[in-house]
């Protein structure tokens, strides 16, 4: 528990993303996407007790908290479970959107580039 | 001024192929907003009333059992059903000649769109009708107004024959054109917009300043409300009264309050995407139709979806508010359209899908286009939908209220909003249109599979059907043998037979859980292990396995609970674990206790294993790797330990090391599905998608039920630009996949 106040599953994936940016594959990703996404993850219900993460796919950085370099290209709101589902390819973003499991603010074309393949997948013990 | 020129776009669209992309994205947005069906024009001609009936009341007063304009001309099945009820509502909501006109504009818009998109001009476009019924004249005229938006040129008033518009119609035109103008000319000044609108209105002999004169028609008052609403003065009101409407609002209430959809639409879909997404949904629908695995269920589902959409349309508050929300937002400059967002798409021309559909379903031509059309301006031509719906229903014999149930279940509220959002932009890359298509497919399948899935996610063990080991004299022994031989899926069946026979057999459940974990199915592993724990609450192996599986599923609290349970129940270390601690577990405390245990007996591999798992939980991977390496010194033949080490290394982005560790595990246990799948993950995380595909396929060949591997395979296939194999993935055609991606 790097941060014991937050037991979000999403944080494991966000953390993995952070490390991923140190790899070649992660660096390629920044060339490919070049956008800044902000994620608002709620434990149970969207909008309530949200934890904000910024995944900067321009610089290859992950930070906790809102984006400080201006306006993110797209902001996504998820519940913890749904974020994990989308990041792991269990639910694709379009479906998440259709079901209202993913809310988007900002540019939709930027949001379109948000696909499960940007997230590294956790390996299983 | 030659009306003809305006309509054909000769003046305003000098370069049609570019006009909808870079020159004026707003124009193309509007264009796409108006739909994209090439079939539409034909269809409109087929509707006898849409071109020849001067008054709408006539049109709508036709008997409900015979829906006009249908290509089927079949009577609506049951006039008392809920289906027809909503149609009645629909109809009563949307009366008025203006709608038909509006419909006409869309028809023209569609053709122009086709023109833009494909560089081919349908011949009839060169011959716009300037005379004929008032509707047609009005239609072409209004269309020319829209055209003027593309070039951003001032709109010239033109003399028109007397159209005999009613006050209500005029009001409608005035309101809608003002709104449209703000939307179309968002980059222009307010004066320009006024000038444009006034030019339009004066041609139509409409006083642009008259508002609310005399008794207003019912619909007009509503329009006014929508406008106000869109301006932010939300008017609370329960307008829903009966049947599905009630159902619908109940559904909506789940989303905070009845009127919240309007707000949430704005919040959710702030950007200009509603248009394009709609188009992709269109594609999706058609793709679904084309799909090989299109089952009757899916067809029914589809129909229900469409009906739901229709149902939504039936409430005028919805349609217009949604539209106006979007438009008013646009008018306030809150929506921005970048050049790159509104670009010509490489989508198949609408006519193609329509034809495709027609070929497959020889009833019904061009519903796709129709759909787009109706949705874009929902009041137009609902009857066709209705007929389609009726026909489908007849075929499938679905219960009348089935779709209503479905409706509430599906969160169609969101769905439809989403859908609404998709109208108009018409611009995504080729790849993403596939995504949308697949998404829709999946969405449908998901509904079908939803029940089963929710069972397994609740930790309920799901047994296989047709288990050949049921009735076996000693399934446990058989299962153990199979497990040892590495035949995991067979072992699962034998062990299932065992636990069906002896539900209290902890060992049967435990081994079943292990088999599932090695088979890369954590959900089933957890379900089995929980049963094992029920039967034997202190079994250390079970507690550790549960801790590992929950860690894999990123469920920290549950994992911590079981790992602490392991310590508590351990004969040697149980004493160092204070029992009261289990009430409120903190990671740091548990880790401290395990470190104490490791000091007590540094040669106990199990302590190091649990420590390694714990450090995984806290994502202190270096410590976890050290713990597992320590354990491996003591237990070098433990294949699952090698896999744990590999997974930890992979999660701390040491992929090369991870692959070496997995290889160790596979040397010890060649059928270790989890390790094969992990190999795939490591290659995929390094961007080596071709390799990852081979490993995923290998894992799946051994256990086709490894859901994660299917999902990851799908991602790798798209990343490796092997979209040609996505269908094999979706239909789980392992033979083909193995042939295509052999593992050297």
Automatic annotation (TrEMBL), chain A:
Pfam families to which the protein is assigned, alphabetical: SCP2 (PF02036)
Domain SCP2 intervals: 18-115
InterPro entries recorded: SCP2_sterol-bd_dom, SCP2_sterol-bd_dom_sf
Gene Ontology cellular component annotations, sorted alphabetically: cytosol
Keywords from the UniProt entry: Lyase
Entry EC no(s): 4.2.1.-
Gene Ontology MF, one: lyase activity
Name of this protein: Putative hydro-lyase
UniProtKB/TrEMBL annotation, chain B:
Residue span of region Disordered: 1-78
InterPro entries xref list: PEX5/PEX5L, TPR-like_helical_dom_sf, TPR_rpt
Composition bias type Low complexity, residue spans: 12-38
A Pfam family recorded for this sequence: TPR_16
UniProt record similarity statement: Belongs to the peroxisomal targeting signal receptor family.
Annotated PANTHER family: GH08708P (PTHR10130:SF0), PEROXISOMAL TARGETING SIGNAL 1 RECEPTOR PEX5 (PTHR10130)
Protein name: Peroxisomal targeting signal 1 receptor
Organism whose genome encodes this protein: Medicago truncatula
């Amino acid at each position: 528990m790097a941060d014991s106040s937050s037991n979000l599953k999403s944080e494991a994936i966000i953390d993995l993303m952070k490390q991923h940016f140190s790899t070649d594959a992660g660096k390629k990703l920044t060339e490919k996407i070049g956008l800044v996404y902000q994620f608002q993850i709620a434990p149970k219900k969207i909008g309530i007790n949200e934890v904000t993460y910024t995944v900067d796919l321009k610089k290859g950085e992950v930070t906790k908290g809102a984006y400080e370099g201006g306006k993110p290209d797209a902001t996504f709101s998820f519940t913890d479970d749904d974020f994990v589902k989308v990041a792991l390819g269990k639910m694709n973003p379009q479906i998440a959107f259709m079901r209202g499991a993913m809310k988007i603010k900002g540019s939709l074309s930027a949001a379109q580039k948000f696909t499960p393949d940007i997230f590294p997948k956790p390996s299983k013990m | 001024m030659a009306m003809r020129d305006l309509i054909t776009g000769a003046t305003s669209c000098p370069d049609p192929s570019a006009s909808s992309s870079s020159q004026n994205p707003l124009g193309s947005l509007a264009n796409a907003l108006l739909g994209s069906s090439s079939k539409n024009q034909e269809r409109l001609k087929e509707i006898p009333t849409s071109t020849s009936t001067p008054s709408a009341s006539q049109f709508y007063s036709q008997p409900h059992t015979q829906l006009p304009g249908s290509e089927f001309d079949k009577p609506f099945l049951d006039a008392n059903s809920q289906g027809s009820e909503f149609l009645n509502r629909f109809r009563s909501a949307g009366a008025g000649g203006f709608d038909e006109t509006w419909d006409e504009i869309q028809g023209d818009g569609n053709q122009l769109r086709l023109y833009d998109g494909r560089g081919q001009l349908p011949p009839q476009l060169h011959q716009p009708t300037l005379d004929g019924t008032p509707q047609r004249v009005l239609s072409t005229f209004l269309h020319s107004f829209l055209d003027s938006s593309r070039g951003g040129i001032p709109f010239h008033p033109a003399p028109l024959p007397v159209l005999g518009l009613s006050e209500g119609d005029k009001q409608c035109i005035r309101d809608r054109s003002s709104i449209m103008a703000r939307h179309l000319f968002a980059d222009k000044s307010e004066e320009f917009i006024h000038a444009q609108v006034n030019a339009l209105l004066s041609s139509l002999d409409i006083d642009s300043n008259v508002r609310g004169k005399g008794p207003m028609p019912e619909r007009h008052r509503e329009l006014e409300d929508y406008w106000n609403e869109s301006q932010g003065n939300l008017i609370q009101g329960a307008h829903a009264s009966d049947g599905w409407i009630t159902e619908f609002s109940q559904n909506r209430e789940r989303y905070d309050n009845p009127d919240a959809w309007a707000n949430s639409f704005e919040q959710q879909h702030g950007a200009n995407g509603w248009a394009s997404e709609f188009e992709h949904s269109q594609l999706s629908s058609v793709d679904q139709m084309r799909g090989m695995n299109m089952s009757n269920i899916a067809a029914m589902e589809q129909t229900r979806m469409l009906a739901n959409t229709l149902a939504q349309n039936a409430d005028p508050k919805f349609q217009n508010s949604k539209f106006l929300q979007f438009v008013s937002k646009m008018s306030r400059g809150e929506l921005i359209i970048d050049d790159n967002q509104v670009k010509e798409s490489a989508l198949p021309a609408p006519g193609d899908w329509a034809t495709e559909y027609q070929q497959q379903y020889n009833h019904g031509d061009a519903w796709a286009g129709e759909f787009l059309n109706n949705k874009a301006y929902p009041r137009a031509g609902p009857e066709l939908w209705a007929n389609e719906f009726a026909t489908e229903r007849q075929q499938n014999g679905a219960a009348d209220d089935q779709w209503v149930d479905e409706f509430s279940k599906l969160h169609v509220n969101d769905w439809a909003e989403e859908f609404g959002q998709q109208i108009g932009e018409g611009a995504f890359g080729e790849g993403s249109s596939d995504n949308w298509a697949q998404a829709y497919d999946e969405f449908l399948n998901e509904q079908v599979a939803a029940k089963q899935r929710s069972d397994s996610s609740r930790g309920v063990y799901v047994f296989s059907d047709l288990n050949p080991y049921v009735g076996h004299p000693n399934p446990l022994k058989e299962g153990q043998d199979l497990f040892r031989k590495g035949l995991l899926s067979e072992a699962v069946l034998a062990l299932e037979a065992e636990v069906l026979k002896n539900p209290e057999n902890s060992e049967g459940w435990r081994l079943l859980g292990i088999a599932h974990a090695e088979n890369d199915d954590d959900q089933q592993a957890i379900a089995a292990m929980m049963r094992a724990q029920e039967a034997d609450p202190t079994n250390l192996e079970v507690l550790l396995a549960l801790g590992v599986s929950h860690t894999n599923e990123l469920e920290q609290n549950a994992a911590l609970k079981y790992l602490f349970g392991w310590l508590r129940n351990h004969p040697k270390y149980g004493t160092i674990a204070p029992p009261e601690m289990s009430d409120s577990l903190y990671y740091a405390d548990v880790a401290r206790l395990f470190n104490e245990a490791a000091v007590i007996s540094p040669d106990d591999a199990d302590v190091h294993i649990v420590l390694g798992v714990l450090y995984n939980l806290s994502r202190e991977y270096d410590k976890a790797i050290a713990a597992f390496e320590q354990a491996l010194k003591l237990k070098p033949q433990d294949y699952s330990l090698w896999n744990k080490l590999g997974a930890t290394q992979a999660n701390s982005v040491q992929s090369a090391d991870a692959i070496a560790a997995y290889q160790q595990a596979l040397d010890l246990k060649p059928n270790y599905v989890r390790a094969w799948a992990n190999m795939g993950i490591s290659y995929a995380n390094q961007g080596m998608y071709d390799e990852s595909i081979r490993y995923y396929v290998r894992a799946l060949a051994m256990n086709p039920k490894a859901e994660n591997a299917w999902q990851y395979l799908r991602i790798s296939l798209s990343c490796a630009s092997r979209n040609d194999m996505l269908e094999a993935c979706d239909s789980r055609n392992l033979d083909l996949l193995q042939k295509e991606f052999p593992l050297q």
